Amino acid sequence: SGTLVATASARGTLVRIHDTTTRQKIRELRRGSDQAILYCINFSHGGEFLSTCSDKGTVHIFALRDASLNRRSMMSPLAGMTGLFVNYGESEWGMAQFTIPPELRAQLAFALPDAKQNSATSSIVALSYDGSYHRYLFTADKCNREHYRVFVDVLSHEDF
């Protein structure tokens, strides 16, 4: 709806969501602790989820409407005790994730549910630069690949 914008930190470990009308940061999501280059940050159609894809080959899915679906750091109880863990300990971690080969840069899109999906299941598609198509179904507690296809054969320099 254009009311939210997501940005990544310079290290690629955090995704911050801002309200475009108030210009205020409203959420901070943690992708991981290892530095990464984020290739894609995407909102779902209704703003229920956000996804990221990085050079590590990981796709992270965050719940936006129901934050209780997202994982919390095991350091969360320590966050109030010391300033050292405040940012790390209080961050929300993704509710689901999957991995594609890291050399396959991908673009993500949340797919509309089809008639055979139950209402608690959502799906996301990763289209990779090698011409492969990955479709995953996810719920609050699992994420499984439903489809994989290669639509384009990538040619080597010798083939030209």
Question: Briefly, what is this?
Answer:
The protein has one helix spanning 86-90, and strands at 4-8, 14-19, 25-30, 38-43, 49-54, 58-63, 71-72, 92-93, 96-99, 106-111, 122-128, 132-138, 143-150.
Secondary-structure blueprint of this entry?
Layout: E1 4-8, E2 14-19, E3 25-30, E4 38-43, E5 49-54, E6 58-63, E7 71-72, H1 86-90, E8 92-93, E9 96-99, E10 106-111, E11 122-128, E12 132-138, E13 143-150
Parallel strand pairs: 3-8
Antiparallel strand pairs: 1-2, 2-3, 4-5, 5-6, 6-9, 7-8, 10-11, 11-12, 12-13
Distance between the termini: 45 Å
Helix % is under 10%
Rg (C-alpha, Å): 17 Å
Dominant shape: globular
For the largest sheet, list the strands in their spatial order: 1-2-3-8-7
Structural class of the secondary elements? Answer: mainly beta
Please report which band the strand proportion falls in: under 5%, 5-15%, 15-25%, 25-35%, 35-45% or over 45%.
Answer: 35-45%
Instruction: Please describe the biggest sheet, giving its number of strands, its sense, and whether it closes into a barrel.
Output: 5 strands, mixed
Number of strands: 13
How confident is the prediction overall: mean pLDDT? 84
Number of helices: 1
The ordered H/E elements are: EEEEEEEHEEEEEE
Low-confidence stretches: none
Description:
By secondary structure, the protein is mainly beta. Helix content is 3%, strand content 44%. The protein has 1 helix and 13 strands. The strands form 3 sheets. Strands 1-2-3-8-7 form a 5-stranded mixed β-sheet. It is globular. The relative contact order is 0.14.
